[in-house]
Amino acid sequence: MDVKNLPTDNLYKFITLFCIALMLSSAYAVVSVYDSHRAQYNKVKEKEFLLLDTKKGTDKFNAQSEYISQEFLRIKSDRSFFIWFPMTAFTLSIFGGIYGFNLWRKNLQKYLDEQVKLETIILRRKAE
Fold this sequence. Notes:
With 128 residues, the protein is mainly α. Helices cover 88% and strands 0% of the residues.
């Protein structure tokens, strides 16, 4: 197969469509992770409200208070860690989609438009 005859239009379409699919799936992942961590945060917040019924200064209160503060820290650190990857994928997919579309437009569509224009001129001349 000659290198000049490779079907690069399919490659450009694949890059663009893959990046669009990656963009949609990573956006869904960001929302899903955020909702999951929000639900965990609300559960811990409920435990904190239930803790207010316990007498302050007791061992049970101190242990539960420490546990709840550790849970808040864990949820905060987990959320930032687990949102980083989908957000990075989302950002890269935007740039990848733009890159694939520009390659297709610059390397292929420009010549197809020129070909259609010349064929239209030829057909008009034949019609006259």
